[in-house]
Request: fold
Amino acid sequence: MSRPRTAVVWFRRDLRTHDHEPLVEAAAADRLLPVYVFDPERYGTREFGGDDSFAYEKTGGFRTRFRLEAVADLRSRLRAAGSDLLVRVGPAPATVADLADDVDADAVYAHTRPTPEERAVETALAERLADAGVAFERYWGHTLYRPEDLPSSVEEIDDTYTPFRHAVESEATVREPLDRPAVPARPAVEPGEIPTAEALGVEPATDDDRAALAFEGGETAGLDRLETYLWTTDSLREYKQTRNGLVGRDYSSKLSAWLNEGCLSPRRVHEAVERYEAERVANDSTYWLVFELLWRDFFQFQFAKHGAQFFAREGIRRREIDWREDPAALARWKRGETGIPFVDAAMRELTETGYLSNRGRQIAASFLANDLRIDWRRGAAYFETRLVDYDPASNYGNWAYVAGVGNDSRNRKFDVLGQAHYYDPEAAYVKRWVPAVEPLEPADAHAPWRLSAERRRELGVEYPDPVLELPPADETDE
Ligand SMILES: Cc1cc2nc3c(=O)[nH]c(=O)nc-3n(C[C@H](O)[C@H](O)[C@H](O)COP(=O)(O)OP(=O)(O)OC[C@H]3O[C@@H](n4cnc5c(N)ncnc54)[C@H](O)[C@@H]3O)c2cc1C
Reply:
């Protein structure tokens, strides 16, 4: 479109000023209004919908806090640049459209998202803006690759990761991140207060000093974490060897929350990895971080291709599985009281801190879906509530994958005990989160039910019996 006189930039899960194409494009306007809307639709109890609908809490305390901090950080950055961030609470489409009307905007600029709820909000806004004769400019900006840079159309992308990866690695290029633009003056509108978690109907998060990392929302903290992980602790050098870790700050990058709220652009991370490769070391670990970011891209494009089918119980593979209803077992899983310490440790870490390692997520998910055979979407919805780094595509995509209804036809059932012995040989992880097994030798700490009731009493171990009988561990299992 021709250069607008007045533009609105609608910030969503792209809470940053670097590599932000809508901001760059809108900065050509004479006046620019940056806006963020807390939509009550995203908080509180909601119905999952579809077959066997159930209620769940959409956004829990950890992600809410992270987002509030990220909005505050964006506001300070925009203020430092001579502008501001308008903050409103209300239905996003009507609120943005009304603001555009108030300031007589010619155009609204925003990032697009492929996941159904985010898309529906965009569509509703697009209709309102079209009625008002205001242009709506949308940009894809949350993955390494852009859809138009892929070797095939989104509809033709392979449903299996490896062919997708080979295709992009050989035929596509990751673009350079965009610089921050100078931000034009803003129209005089009351900036508004950033709400509290309570005002959004969310119980505030409480801290646990066992947390892997104190996740602080915002571009500033995200860029700091990238700097620390690559340059200060030099941890990227060994990522491939450490990434299956369970305890500590630096076994993995911990960038996911900043990536998913958009505080960090994946292209900015990619650029940093390339610089690290040029200045420090290029090895299988530096490659592997990008390999994992490609998994993230893969699920985003899979959602662009398959849409809401990802939320169906039978998944994109339309596989009918006889899922069980077992509210008591589901509740024990959520509380971390299944009686299987490795699963319980993972669930307690998730519930108490909002973060869980990739290994822990795989174990907890596989146990619910493949051992208990409980509808995988109940587990995915619980993750949606708790995770600080929740993203619809990464969460439901990974859950469907583990449950055997997603992007892989192999059996993804994990041997929970084998995994426990392999990845937690000293039982340090389970003892951290399940103190009841502290007095036990590592092998017993992973399977306390093998000790007689009398022996457990002697040792003072009070812990529930397992919710189901697990097969013996395959000690070689990875
Ligand atoms: C059941 C289940 C649910 C999950 N839900 C989410 C979710 O809601 N949000 C989310 O970001 N990740 C999710 N993941 C993927 C992965 O567990 C997390 O991205 C990772 O643990 C985040 O920690 P990190 O940033 O230290 O990861 P690192 O190991 O340092 O990886 C670097 C980045 O690569 C991306 N990545 C790594 N693995 C995956 C993967 N399997 N799928 C997609 N992206 C990946 C993430 O952006 C991550 O930040 C889920 C995995 C499982 C098995």
About this structure: The chain has three domains: 6-141, 201-306, 327-459. The mean pLDDT is 96.
